[in-house]
Amino acid sequence: MPAIPSKPRVMISRALPEEVIARARSRADVDLHAGDKPLSKTELIARVKDREGLVCLITDTIDSSVFESSPGLKVVSNVAVGFNNIDVAAATKRGVVVTNTPDVLTETTADFAWTLLMATARRLVEADRYVRDGKFTQWEYMVLLGGDVHDKTLGIIGFGRIGRAMARRALGFNMRVLYQDAVAADPATERELRATRTDTATLLRDSDFVSIHTPLLPDTRHLINAQSLRTMKKTAYLVNASRGPVVDEAALVQALKEGWIAGAGLDVFEEEPKVHPGLMGLSNVVLAPHIASASSDTRIKMAALAVDNCLAVLEGQTPPTPVNPEVLGKR
Ligand code: GLV
Q1: What is the CATH number of domain 106-287?
Q2: Site residues for ligand 1, CB cut-off 6 Å
Q3: Distance of CA 143 to the CA centre of its chain
Q4: DSSP class of 330
Q5: Counting atoms of ligand 1 from 1, which one is nearest the CA of 79?
Q6: Is 249 a catalytic residue?
């Protein structure tokens, strides 16, 4: 009798939706860390070292130490579109495929960035607190005045999938859209989204809302700094649902305190889960715990895509969304 091929060995670093774990278990020997805290680096290495596949989250730092101690590792599958938690160069050097979860979270993430934009401009969190604190004792004409969104200018930094989804939302608010990106969108897309490409300084100077959708790269770290915040209008709002370190948080605290800009909506922070203490006491900032893609449907789709990516590599197929496809040809 021919030997039954053994299932590939996969480590999943956090609890994911049950149906997705069940799918993984049907095709792989799964070691699931279902605890409520991420594994420490030492614990993670101990559990990955004899695995061929790793499905991980942005709270897991996958650097060369993980690759060095896991000689059989073939794929690292991130349950996120961003992958700055993974040393992709080190993975590529060792022939390890890295995958992410683009597309499935685009609209949900843009919905949330838009939520932050609206909540910040219309002071929704302050309004909620006002009512709960019993301050709504009579209708007031001049209370909680916010900024208009319709007819204003939205500046989008990073015009990839999510940036473009923001621009599509802006059409419904009759906004002018400026965008900054290393690559120009094709003219048809610019026309459809009524978006104009510009340099960062012009975008900062002319926009009423600046929304960041760029990945974290060496040259986007602190892209928004004291100088950029000083360039923005005093009536402008900043939204960040990309990665925290794109914004110099200390400079942002100063800008919000001293009125260089009107407000900010933040889903991400420089040193998550830490939040700059200066942000905590400010009423002109809306804070969220990195939940832009956190709808029930989208979290299932992200987990399913991550598991599909992982299993595809281990079963000798092309994964749907590789980050370093150059590795695939060499395997
Ligand atoms: C979340 O931050 C993601 O990159 O998907």
Answers
A1: 3.40.50.720
A2: 58, 80-82, 105, 293
A3: 34
A4: G
A5: 5
A6: no
Other Cβ atoms less than 10 A from the Cβ of 137: the count is: 6
Catalytic residue check, 290: yes
Q: What's the CA gap between 177 and 167, in Å, rounded?
A: 7
Domain ranges across the chain: 9-103+296-330, 106-287
Alpha-helix residue ranges (DSSP H) falling in the chain = 18-27, 41-48, 64-69, 88-93, 106-121, 124-132, 161-172, 187-192, 200-206, 226-231, 249-258, 277-280, 296-314
Helix (H) / strand (E) element for 75: namely strand 75-78
- Tell which atom from ligand 1 comes closest to the C-alpha of 268: 2
Residue 331 CB contacts under 8 Å (≥ 6 apart), including other chains: 74, 95, 97
Q: How long, in residues, is the chain? A: 331
185: left (phi over 0), alpha (psi -120 to 50) or beta: beta
pLDDT digits (tens, 9 = 90+) for 13-61: 999 999 999 999 999 999 999 987 899 999 999 999 999 999 999 999 9
Identify the residue whose C-alpha is closest to ligand 1 atom 1. 80
Are 72 and 41 in contact, with CB atoms under 8 Å apart? Answer: no
126 noted as active-site residue:
no
pTM for this entry:
0.96
SS3 84: coil
H/E element, 209: strand 209-212
Could you please state the CATH topology (level 3) that the domain comprising 9-103+296-330 is classified under: Rossmann fold (3.40.50)
What does the block give as tokens for 71? 């000689």
